[in-house]
């Protein structure tokens, strides 16, 4: 199975939480991806809490393929955001880009974000 990890999933992985253990198991048995925007979110979060970003950066690069955002993905993600904005108010543009990317490669999204609960693509880890 193809999986795409969001920032929440990676942060929990690095925290070695119960959710992080679920992520670890999923990483071991599946083809893994990370959207470049989510990589940026992880790096920002780690830096803001005073952590060293190099180790986690290398782990993400080594354990998942990085999906770079291109103009077509940006367009489709923007359209998706506009479409679901009134239904799921707390779903930001980065989440819609992630959802669009998952759909484009037929992947499941590994996340703890509850606003994904209505989407068949989601694997909720909490």
Number of strands: 5
CATH superfamily: 5'-nuclease
Radius of gyration: 14 Å
Reported for the largest beta sheet, the result is: 5 strands, parallel
Q: What is the 3D form?
A: globular
Number of domains: 1
- What are the segments in which pLDDT stays under 50 over at least 5 consecutive residues? none
What is the CATH top level name?
A: Alpha Beta
Q: For the terminal residues, how far apart are their CA atoms?
A: 20 Å
Helix content: 55-70%
- Decide which structural class fits the backbone: alpha/beta
Annotation field: number of helices: 6
Question: What is the mean pLDDT?
Answer: 96
Residue share in β-strands: 15-25%
Q: Your description of this structure?
A:
The protein is globular and about 35 Å long. α1 (7-15) packs across α2, α1 crosses α3 and α5 packs across α6 (93-105). With 126 residues, it is of the alpha/beta class. It has one domain (2-124): 5'-nuclease (Rossmann fold), CATH 3.40.50. The chain has a five-stranded parallel β-sheet with strand order 3-2-1-4-5, sandwiched between helices. It has six helices and five strands; from the N terminus they run βααβααβααββ.
């Amino acid at each position: 199975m193809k999986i795409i990890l969001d920032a929440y999933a990676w942060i929990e992985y690095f925290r070695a939480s119960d959710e992080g253990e679920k992520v670890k198991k999923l990483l071991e048995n599946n083809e893994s991806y990370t959207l470049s925007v989510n990589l940026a979110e992880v790096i920002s979060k780690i830096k803001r809490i005073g952590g060293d970003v190099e180790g986690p950066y290398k782990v993400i690069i080594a354990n998942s393929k990085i999906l770079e955002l291109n103009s077509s993905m940006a367009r489709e993600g923007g359209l998706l955001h506009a479409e679901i904005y009134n239904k799921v108010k707390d779903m930001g543009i980065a989440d819609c880009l992630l959802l669009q990317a998952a759909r484009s490669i037929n992947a499941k999204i590994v996340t703890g974000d509850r606003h994904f609960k209505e989407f068949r693509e989601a694997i909720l880890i909490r």
